[in-house]
Specification:
about 65% helix, about 0% strand
Length: about 160
């Protein structure tokens, strides 16, 4: 579980970034005549944003913070971890989140089972298991998951990530 904690933290940071980026783009640009003409280079730095623009960016996070007191410590840890990540680690985390979003429910269940199993393995055993997993057919994977079911999903106020 500890090995995947950085990925979970990165996931929260990515979710926040996904919420913030559209708001920044929508509010920071002065509705250019051609939407394709707007680029990240044209967007202002944080210090150049108006107070209303900053408020719009922060509002979703404030709402999540206030509505989920039990998640506050985890949210802080995610933010700290994201700040400590290198650009390459952030890129990998974004790619992983994008892949997760495109999995169907059965694939997510399989991944939960696989990751839970991998948590208890050393690096060599983990690599061997991943090679074995990649070589399995879909039917073999289903059978493996039946024999190694994923842990129950944690109960949370919002299940939008799953």
């Amino acid at each position: 579980m500890r090995r995947l904690a950085p990925l979970r933290r990165a996931g929260w940071a990515l979710a926040l970034a996904a919420l913030v980026a559209p708001a920044l783009i929508a509010t920071a640009t002065a509705a250019p005549p051609d939407p394709a003409a707007a680029s990240a280079a044209n967007l202002p730095a944080w210090d150049q944003l108006s107070q209303a623009q900053r408020e719009q960016l922060i509002a979703p996070m404030r709402e999540r913070w206030n509505n989920s007191p039990e998640e506050r410590q985890r949210m802080l840890e995610h933010a700290r971890r994201w700040q400590q990540m290198t650009p390459e680690e952030r890129k990998d985390a974004r790619r992983g989140m994008k892949r997760w979003e495109h999995l169907d429910p059965e694939e997510r269940s399989q991944m939960r089972a696989l990751f839970a199993h991998l948590r208890g393995l050393d690096d060599n055993a983990r690599r061997a298991m991943m090679e074995k997993w990649r070589a399995m057919t879909p039917e073999q994977r289903r059978a493996w998951v039946q024999a190694n079911p994923p842990p129950p999903k944690p109960e949370r106020g919002s299940s939008s990530r799953d």
